[in-house]
């Protein structure tokens, strides 16, 4: 499955538009990860644990969107948009969502 943020796949004309497809993942922040991230923020550097969680959530959201597109018979998803939102009291959860147009190329 081709997944792209561009409105088309170069050299592969769209034969059929199948509709909008989405994927959403919500992950909770772990207390210990929060503690270590705070320490990292104080001493400087990147928070590897948060980056891993963000990467996993993004991959899962895209995979969910691809699955929805495959069920429609799509061979590609074009115009993909990724969004990140903090949810819950005190921002304790992160939502990663993606959407695009399922097409046959």
UniProtKB/TrEMBL annotation:
Pfam families: YbjQ_1. Belongs to the UPF0145 family. This is UPF0145 protein LK12_06395. It comes from Novosphingobium malaysiense. The lineage of its organism: Bacteria, Pseudomonadati, Pseudomonadota, Alphaproteobacteria, Sphingomonadales.
